[in-house]
Input
Amino acid sequence: MVYRQKRCFGFMAIVLTALIFTLTIGTQQASAVDVVVRKQAADANPPLYISSLDMSTRGKKLMQSTLHRCGWFDIVSSSQEDAFSLRALSKETASGKTLKIRLKTAGNKTFSFTIRAKGVDNRKLVYRAVDTVIKKVFNKPGPCESRIAYVKAQNGRKEIKTCNFDGSEVRQLTYNRSISTEPSWGRNGQYLAYTLYDRNKMKTVLVNMGHDRQRIVSASPGLNSGPAISPGGDYVALSMSRKGSVDLFVKSLENNQIYRVTSGSGVESSPVWSPGGDRLCFVSDRAGRPHLYITKVNNREADRLTGDSAEEVSPDWSELSNKIVFSTRQGGRYKIAVLDMTKKNPEKRILNTGTGDWESPSWSPDGRHIVCTRSHGGQKKLFMVDTISGKGVPILQGADISLPDWGMIPGNP
Output
C-alpha cells in the first residue's frame, strides 16, 4: 500500500529512500468523531449584485469571474434587499490605471475605494480590487492576488511551477532537469523551499523569489526532504536521516545550526508550523500507520493529535484561522479533513467534497479555502475547495500535477 502525502513522493517513499540512503552510507488528543460538513444557512455567503461594470469587455468578464471564484459571495442576477451591490469604474491615464469600486451593503451603508497602479495589467488590478473588498467586508485577506506552487512531471523529470489562484499565468520556477518537488512557501511569498533529488542525492533548496536566487539549505548525507519555513522566516523544518532513523530537524537560515526535534522509533515527515512558530504538526508511523502528531520545537516529546485509526497524512496549518487541514483515508478513498485548533477538543470534520481521492491540501491566505488535488476517472486536477461548504472549483488539470502549496505574493499582508 502506498501512503500518499503532501510534501513527499509518498510516505512509503520516505521509508524506502531512508533505507536506501542508510544502506548506502553504512548505516492534546482530538475527538475521533467524524462530522460531514454540509452547507448550512448560517454558513451561506452574502448575496452580491453587480450593478454596474464600466470596464472593457475583458475587464468585465474578469471581474465577474473573480468575484464568483473568490468564494466569499453568492453572485445574484438582480438587486435584492439583503444583497450587497457593487459598481466598478476603470480608467487609464498617462500616470497609470485606476479602478474605482463602490460597494453598498445590505444595511445601505456605502464605501468606496480606488486601486491605482502603474505598470500593472488588468488582471492584477482586478485581483487587488476584489481582495480589498473581501478585506473591508470580512476583515480577511483575499485569495486572489496570490500564487500557487505545484509539481509538474514530464519526461521522467519533475519541475516546480506556479500559477494564479484561478490557474492563469503559469510560470516555471525550477529548471533542474531532475526531480524538484515538495514546494513550500514562506511568509508573504518572499521565499519558497523545495526538495531536490539529483545525482542520487537529496537536498533542500531555498528560493529568494524577489531576486530569483537559490541556495542549498541542507545537503547532509541521506534524506533531506519536506521543508517548511517558519512563520518568522528564520528557520526551516525538515526530515533528515541520521543513524538509520528519519526524524524532524530545525535548521537556522541565519547561522545554519541544526536542532533535532524528534527521536521517535518511526518515520517522521511532513512538518508544518503552528501560527506562533513554537510547535510542529507532522506525520509519523510510530503507531504502525501514518497519523498526525504535535510537538513543541524545543521538546522531543510528541502527542498524537487524533484518536482515529484511519491514515492521516499531508497536514497544513493555517496561520490565519489556526486550523489544520489534512488528508485521511476513509472507505478506501482519501478525503479532506479539518481540525480547529482554537478549540480545546477539536473535532475531526470530513469535508463533503464528492467522489475521488482528495489529497495534498494547502491553506489559502484567507484561512477558509484550500488548494488540493482530486484524482477521479483517470484524471487529476488542482481544486480550490471551500472548507465551510465543501464546494470545489477546478483550477488546473493534468495527470502529472501534484503537491500544491498556496502562498501570498511578496508585499501582501
